[in-house]
Amino acid sequence: MENSRQYFSVQDESPRLRDWNGSSKWNECFNPEMPSTSWKPAGSEGYPQNIGAAQKGLNMQWVVQLTNVAEGLLTKMYRLNQILDYPDSVSHVFSDAFWKAGVFPNHPRICVLVSKKFPEHPNKLQIERADKMALDALQNNAEVNLQSLEPWVLLLLDLMAFREQALRLILDLSSTVITLMPHQNSLILHAFMGLFCSFVRVNLFSEKIPRKMMVQMYNLLHAMLRNGRDSEFYNRLVQFIDSYDPPLKGLQEDLNFASPRIGEVLEAVGPVIFLSTDTKKLRNEGFLSPFHPRYPDILTNSAHPMRAQDLANVTSYWEWVLFGYLVCPDELLRATSIDIASVVLKENLILTLFRDEYALLHDDYQLYVLPHVIESKKMAKSGRAKQKEADLEYSVAKQVKKMLCEVHEQALISCDAIHRERRILLKQEIGRMVLFFTDQPSLLAPNIQMVFSALALAQSEVIWYFQHVGVGSSKSKSVRMVPVEIDPNDPTIGFLLDGMDRLCCLVRKYIAAIRGYALSYLSSCASRIRFLLDTPGMVALDLDVTLKGIFQQIVHHLENIPKLQGENISPITCDLSDFRKDWLSILMIVTSSRSSINIRHLEKATISTGKEGLLSEGNAAFNWSRCVNELESQLSRHGSLKKLYFYHPHLTAVFRNTMFGPEGRPQHCCAWLGVASSFPECASTLVPEELTKIGRDAVLYVESLIESLMGGLEGLINILDSEGGFGSLEIQLLPEQAAIHMNYATKASNPTKPPKVISGLPLPGHESFPENSGSIKMLEAAMQRLTNLCSVLNDMEPICVLNHVFVLREYMRECILGNFRKKLLAVLKTDNDLQRPSILESLIRRHMSIVQLAEQHISMDLTWGIREVLLTEAFSGPVSSLHFFQETTDQNTGSAVEAVCNWYVENIVKDVSGAGILFAPMHKCFRSTRPVGAYFADSVTDLRELKSFIRIFGGYGVDRLDRMMKKHTATLLNCIDTSLRLNREALKAFARSMHSGVQVGREENLKQIVDIDTVIGFCIQAGLALAFDRLLAEAAAAVLDEGAPLIFSLLARVAKHLPDEIPEEEEIRRLRVVANSVGVVGDHDSEWVRSILGEVGGANDGSWNLLPYLLAAFMTSNVWNTTAFNINIGGFNNNIHCLARCISSVIAASEFIKMERAQLQNQSLSNGHAAEVTEPEVHNLLSVEANIKSVMQLFVKCAVGVILDSWSENNRSHLVAKLIFLDQLCEFSPYLPRSTLELHVPYTVLRSIYSHYYSNSPSIPLALLSPSPRHSPALSVFHASPTFRHNRGDWTPQSGGYDSVNVKATSSRSQELIYDNDSRSQRGSDNNKHRNIRRSGPLEYSTSRKVKFVEGSTSASTGPSPLPRFAVSRSGPLLNK
């Protein structure tokens, strides 16, 4: 190629153009990874630069290099096309991105003008008339614009040089190669046709870049900078572009000399093309089966000896036909060509040029082939009278014309159906092939060529499918793409991808066995070749020394192949590249017409033996040698789907439409994802940024598919976890529905006949009937799909794309756990309100059952992951803060438990919705006068619901709810401290008056105490928090005892033996807090308030000594005017009974806190002598209890005094409520015996009060049983009623399948339901324990009691109750008027 330099030696060109040289410049375009099979003859050290030089053999090195040059030129043109936003150079339509790309000057009028007027010289176009201002700007920036155009002008020069050299090489080969038949000279044939197709592709693709504008603008800019002189390349480039405008015109002229040889090749490959398109024959004759369908005993491919190799190359043959007849139209006039062309044209709509760029096939044939055929027809018609052969030519031309006119419409109608039928065939054959070779792997090696054939056909069909997405017919060259509808739901694509992937995996798995079989074949081939070389025919040929030496080297290579030792094949390494080089050297010599010994001589000399000829043996050995060293490259050539990268958006769309369709298979997702691993192989080293872009797109493709897979996985789980899924199997009749069915069944005339569905209420088991079995089948299908998908994703190997590794198991785990978290947050609330914890627990259990079903097919502990999600939703802060009972600023709480806890605090404790929340001590739950959201309060606060809450969120949820209530209660108790400080003087005056017994000024002192009602409201709310926390502790104790009985027993026993030290050590304090959180500490309320005051520093000054007086002043509040006792709940209608709980716990806690601080001060003054303070510690505990009792007695004394002072004949309605309040205080407080109250209020008064209440209640009988001496009169009456005799150990209301408190199915009487009370509950046992150690017992209201109360009496009587006498009494001041 040195002669090309003479055209480009100039003085005024830029340095880059001046240094341009065709051969040296092309080295940049060469693929650095040359094939391992070298075309270079053995022993040659260099290659002559002149290809046409006389030589004996062919030099095929230039064929390989020019093919690589073509690849580089196509890559550069493709990149330029991308930069310029795919311009339409034919119609001169350019987008805004074209002008902003920076390649051409942004002066559209001038650029388009010079392009349209090509090849007219720019100086003759009077450009200044088109756009004078743009021309001036162009002159000012001529240097910059010239530099931006220069690299692409070099590309045009490369195209021109490539054309010259490729044409010379094609001419040389077509004139010197003796034969190009596939069965004789397939290796050189493929190299020659590869160069031929590359040459056609390069020139067809060049039409897509603006060649005319590039040359014209470069020359215009060059003239501006060089005083009007044209570029030295200008004339040649204009001539080159004009001769290839359009490219097919130039190609048909240039390749006319090689047309006969091309026609011969296309005729030779015709039979294989016909076979590949005959799906019926392929199926019936078993061309793609390891055994013959009609002869099952034949398990090898001996039925069709050459079928495997031919079918593996059929995709190349199709390409040769499409390109060959397009640029050599005269060859269509051969007798057999019409059938070959018709078959191929009928199956294709496009002509692939490079990557995803294509030309409309039938448009090009109509524009450039049909005119030639018509012209030939005319010439043959005119010569029919003179020559006999002209009549045959005319007939053929007429048939060809008709075929070209009809084949386009046929292709539009039938090509999709043809390829769909072929895909179905390949799906079936590859599926059987995979099953067969999996069962019989020993037969894989003998049939490896058949495997390559199946892979090649499947590869072609898959790529064809995606290439034709959006392709239509267009007569206009200006339309780049005409979108048409294509079925994206074709499931055969997934089957083909999966079959190819599994076949490739089988080959890789048994690669050692295949190599071993190939080595055995080559070893046996050595003796056959030696025998053929010694035949008389070969001896008579008298080979020259060179050829004879190469044959001897061939035999030497084959005889030196290492022998197999046993079954261990993997360690054997054998490089047969020298053997392949030597064989190619022989082929290059014997296929050249310049050689004295050619291929025909060798065939005639060796074929007479009755066996395979020498060339056939050598070609077979060449192919098997590639299975030893180049099996991976062979597998990549036939089975790689890297070209699908350019169609990956369509790939994603088809995946989404087919994977979860009715014919989708979960196991196919492995193949869909595995395709991405080969995408980076599409990147070219000539465009460095391509690797980054393709790698990024491949990663996004995998992520998109994984997202779709995970979405499908979520969908399957959600289908099962729905009311129409597993929820339909949990349907139970509600009590009302069961009653309706029972009534109907009773009244039915035929009792044996099952009742029909009434009012839309389905009977249990209705899904078992055949007409209702669709839902069950759907569930079974969803379960099967779910388990299969999980199994496939679990077993899938990691997907590697560049430096990214995708492990599907991890994605699946995150998907399942993430979906569980979303479901948890979604079902947590219904209609913006809290879901009942019991229902939430059942939904979680249902979801977990589905997860456990999937877990059986996944090598991961998903159950542990579910627990982690629940833990995260309950607590996500540092665990160390839990160890030390500290609340740090960086401690976060899960959104789920936060929402639940906030709802309970806001709606139950605070009652922000104004639902009338009441705590019912009798039933140990909260009630509401109207629904709190979707439910009444008792349906979300009873023990069963709190147990469900704890089972869901565990101890962390309990801690969170406890902390929130503590925080709220601390704020409420702070109001007591503020009130004590604010009313200090008034309280002191009130205290003096109480101690002195002087009533003068007492009422004025009480009136000076401000905000009494406000403080009472806060204390009632604190009492509600205490009651709720007590319920929470009981539920926590029950759950802990059920789930971890040993730990619960340990805590209960340890709590009994905790040292009673004041102040307590930090470890003892923590342990006491834990024990109190599960209700095993005796006085839960006092301990709870004590911890709150200790944390906030409450009761820290002398004003707290006035606490009993402030509490006694509560008796003067106006709240008592509206207070009434409710026997149905055992409390007051405005939660005043919670005030008693608050008073008891606050007094006890404040005394503990004051004693602790006093002891700390004493310890600080004792100089650390621990022995001196050991004995007083026990005394301090007793003294603090004595102080608490003293303060409680003082409060009762002051409260009774205030009550009696405020009582009068005109104002006594509040008296009853206040006395019952004091009685309930005795009930709540372990430090206030009822004897203390009786010193001020006789028991007969209280008995009369309770008798009056219960005698007026229609639901409570008057007959009473003898109660326990630990019960108040109210509880005595309550337990005496036979209506409330408990018959079960759990006091939780049993709502059954029908929840009467749900608003949507609740009657107005639901709040009138009466709940049982379990006197043997843990709380009762704890209270009983502490009351047994009192120095004086509570009131005894039996018939044996006299009017005078004897303190400490615990006697009881079984005599008749005197209650009716008090019930009918109308005397006394106790009657509410």
From TrEMBL:
InterPro entries, alphabetized? Nck-associated_protein-1
User: Where on the tree of life does the source sit, at the highest rank?
Assistant: Eukaryota
Q: Biased-composition ranges for Basic and acidic residues?
A: 1317-1329
One BP term from GO: cell migration
Region labeled Disordered — which residues? 1309-1377
The cross-references to Pfam families, in alphabetical order and at most eight, read: Nckap1
GO annotation, cellular component aspect: SCAR complex
| Family label | Belongs to the HEM-1/HEM-2 family.
Q: What is the protein's given name? A: Protein NAP1
Q: What is the lineage of its organism?
A: Eukaryota, Viridiplantae, Streptophyta, Embryophyta, Tracheophyta
